[in-house]
Amino acid sequence: MRIALFVAACVASTDALGAGSAGGLDWRYFAAGGVSAAVSHGYTTPLDVIKTRMQTNPELYNGSVPLALSEILQNEGAAFLLQGLGPTCVGYGLEGALKFGCYELAKPIFKSVTPSDFANAILASCVAGGVAALVLCPPEDVRIRMVSDPAYARNSVEGFKRRVAEDGPLASFAAVPAMMAKQVPYTMGKQVSFDYACELVHALLVAVCSAELLETVDGFTPVIAALPAAVLACVLSHPGDAVLTQFFKRGPQPGGVAGSVGLLMKEGGGPLALFTGLKARLLHVIGIIWVQLIIYDKVKVALGLPATGH
């Protein structure tokens, strides 16, 4: 009987998102998103430094995370692992607030476009990813320059000033197409899959647990659901991340994003070049998204919103 209830809940989840994912205009989505993104991206800055260094200098490390870490510690020192922490926290805090908030805001808006809640969530994630791309271009531009060239600036403020002085205040936004190539699939993989994974995990717990036990274990729903969301987001967005890193390192290529992809594949010997640094980024992204989604769910519940998938 419990298995039958679980199967029925799974079928139902393909037709409609749970009440906790219905969305709408509410400042609490923005607040929870900002807090979760700033914390999760900030504490994983060392992994992002290693990943970026591997992508900008792949010939030096041969895909080895320990080798890249050893080289950074030997040549730049341990403090360099926090390079770009300032723009990371500021940029991703604002990005997280807008990404989660716009995602939840857009879902009910798209109900007038299509009757499918799944399609609405996909469309909403595209909007949220586009907004995130605009917000992240300046801080990501400065962060990648500071990591790939240790002499670029002594700190984040100096890095922003140098970028504006040399190329103007809008220079970083030339990377919007490359940033969208990363952020749109990243947002789809993270937020849509988390919504549905929470529903499925919650349905499973309802099916197999007594009411008393459910009250205890249901709090682990986002902990379980966030892991597959993190892996999916990383794999889907990694080619875009590789293109973005090269864009900030070399500037725009003929043919735009497609030209950058072609250059990467040509220099790297084929499509696998688009997944350079994936090992380091898997650690980095899982460390970010797993924690981020758990914090997001807990913060919005603390603010009075329903848990995701309920």
From TrEMBL:
Signal is among the record's keywords: yes
SUPFAM superfamilies given in the database record: Mitochondrial carrier
PROSITE patterns found in the cross-reference section: SOLCAR (PS50920)
Record carries keyword Signal: yes
Gene3D superfamilies registered for this protein in UniProt: Mitochondrial carrier domain (1.50.40.10)
Family: Belongs to the mitochondrial carrier (TC 2.A.29) family.
Residues making up the signal peptide according to the UniProt record: 1-16
Membrane disposition: Multi-pass membrane protein
Subcellular location: Mitochondrion inner membrane
Keywords attached to this entry: Membrane, Mitochondrion, Mitochondrion inner membrane, Repeat, Signal, Transmembrane, Transmembrane helix, Transport
Protein name: Phosphate ion transmembrane transporter
Alphabetical list of InterPro entries matching this protein: MCP_dom_sf, MCP_transmembrane, SLC25A3/Pic2/Mir1-like
Species of provenance: Aureococcus anophagefferens
Solcar repeat feature ranges: 28-109, 116-200, 217-302
